[in-house]
Amino acid sequence: MTSTKNNIIRSATIVILVGLAAYFAVRFFWNSAPFIPPAFLEARARGSVLSENIIKLSQESLKNLEKISDADKAGDYSNGLNLVIGEISRNELARASALSLSNELEVMALKLGDVKPKAAMNVGLQAIIGQSQLVQRLINYNGYIYELLDVLRVRFSNKGASGAKEVADIIKQMNEESQSINDLNYKYRELMAKFDGLTRKEE
């Protein structure tokens, strides 16, 4: 009887130990398994669309800046002014996209702590910081376009007697900001490709 009781206790103990081992094993592997919160994925998808729109507008702006520079050099200030006004309209669209992108990045940042593994979380953080810098660059660009408009207005009124250097300097700064926007977006895509590799579940 005692032997049977001991066997039952021993068996029960083994079952409990195996159960506990299985429980902690499941918890360990579940916690270390790749995981991305749905809200993060949704915000990322929306942000990607906005980002691509910003890049498209930025590339159009680069082409337009060449036309503005050519018009200024040719003394065609009326055309240059019209081109800048058109650039402002395009830039407002990019600015609206940047503000929306900023909101999506905020959602991604809030959900980043739930991403697994930790290495992916760190890469995701770098990507989000980079895209936040892209938004800041676009804000800088927005400021330069209004500076350019003011300078061209003066040049138009004084028949080009002043402001040539200011126009050249502002266009140079705008080109640099636009290039930085493209570079930051390229870096973001690189980081998110790495992020995807770290969070890809094995079949």
Overview of this protein structure:
- By secondary structure, the protein is mainly alpha-helical.
- It folds into two domains: 1-32; 36-199, Four Helix Bundle (Hemerythrin (Met), subunit A).
- Helix content is 88%, strand content 0%.
- The protein has helices spanning 2-32, 38-73, 77-111, 118-157, 164-199.
- Helix 2 packs antiparallel against helix 3 (77-111).
- Residues 4-30 have low confidence and may be disordered.
Concise summary:
With 203 residues, this protein is an all-alpha fold.
Spell out the key features of this protein.
5 helices; 0% strand; membrane; 2 domains; transmembrane; transmembrane helix; elongated; 203 residues; mainly alpha; Four Helix Bundle (Hemerythrin (Met), subunit A); DUF5667 domain-containing protein
Task: Please write out the topology.
Layout: H1 2-32, H2 38-73, H3 77-111, H4 118-157, H5 164-199
Strand/helix succession: HHHHH
Average pLDDT across residues? 80
Shape: elongated
Number of helices: 5
Q: How much is the radius of gyration in Å? A: 28 Å
The level 1 CATH classification of the largest domain is Mainly Alpha
What share of the residues lie within helices? over 70%
C-alpha end-to-end distance: 51 Å
